[in-house]
Amino acid sequence: MVRFRGPLKVACCWSRRMCFRIEEGILWCMQRHRGKFVGLLHPFSALVLLSLIGFLFVYELWYVLPLLTDPQGIWHKLNWLLAIYTVFNILGNWWLGFMCNTAVESLPPKRQHPSAGEAHLWHYCTSCQKLVPPRSWHCRLCNQCILKRDHHCTFSGNCIGHNNQRYFLGFLFHLSFGSGQALVYNAMLAWKSKAFLVTDPLLFMNENHSNDPDFNWKYTVASMLKLNFFLFMVPLGMFVLQMLMVYRNSTCYRILDRSYDVGWQQNFNIVLGNRRFWTFFSPTISSPLPNDGTQWFQKQHV
Ligand SMILES: [Zn+2]
Ligand SMILES: [Zn+2]
């Protein structure tokens, strides 16, 4: 036992040091080539996002919906309206989240410095070389300190923090809702076409599909259903995680920190503003936040 403890300990230390060096190397590389990295990553992510939204929108409304409802009927028109409203909310929240400045520099000059008696709560950022408010952290991609930093979102091309988390939540909510709406259409079409299990590998091996003249059609319908299921689960999972963060007033940056939890209602007020869940109806609804992101009430540890 004693003989193996030494080498094992050395191996653990060595691998930890290697991981640390690799991480440092990646961060150094990112910092050094920040402009090029961000200039490529953000447009690429935005292009992927817009292509997926556009593809699902066209496929569902021009291709799937006419096979499920009468194109002249009221249900068809209502589903069209609902889809347009959802896409408006996705793109509106996405755009406003991108445009919203949530950096410490967005504060009025007077608030960028601690007021009397607050300096001990602020901390020094070695990159910005100045004191920054509590819960503000430096982002290497944005190259600035972000108020109540949650994480950097490459799809939004911005950091998610105190001022724009409301838009990020609205974006995820409508992304989940829209892909959920598409999932219902695709499931109905798969049911109608008897295509539910066509792409199932076991069924595919057991059954002879060569005699089925509609096999290619069924295969497409079933594959789209599976792709859609994936595109529904990803934003839904992220939305649930974000709601949990807001519910506890913690952030992805410090996921287990519950020291700022002031009760779920007040926690949601802090992120969504005084109109709270009404903000999910439209990104244009004005909902002022109760504070500017520099002062945080922290629970006293017993
Ligand atoms: Zn900083
Ligand atoms: Zn950032």
Automatic annotation (TrEMBL):
Membrane topology: Multi-pass membrane protein
Catalyzed chemical reaction(s): L-cysteinyl-[protein] + hexadecanoyl-CoA = S-hexadecanoyl-L-cysteinyl-[protein] + CoA
Transmembrane segments: 40-62, 82-104, 167-191, 227-247
UniProt keyword terms in alphabetical order: Acyltransferase, Membrane, Transferase, Transmembrane, Transmembrane helix
Broad class of where this protein is predominantly found: membrane
E.C. numbers: 2.3.1.225
Keyword Transmembrane helix: yes
InterPro entries: Palmitoyltrfase_DHHC, PFA4/ZDH16/20/ERF2-like
Span of domain Palmitoyltransferase DHHC: 122-254
Family the entry assigns: Belongs to the DHHC palmitoyltransferase family.
Domain-related comment: The DHHC domain is required for palmitoyltransferase activity.
UniProt name for this protein: Palmitoyltransferase
Native source organism of the sequence: Drosophila rhopaloa (Fruit fly)
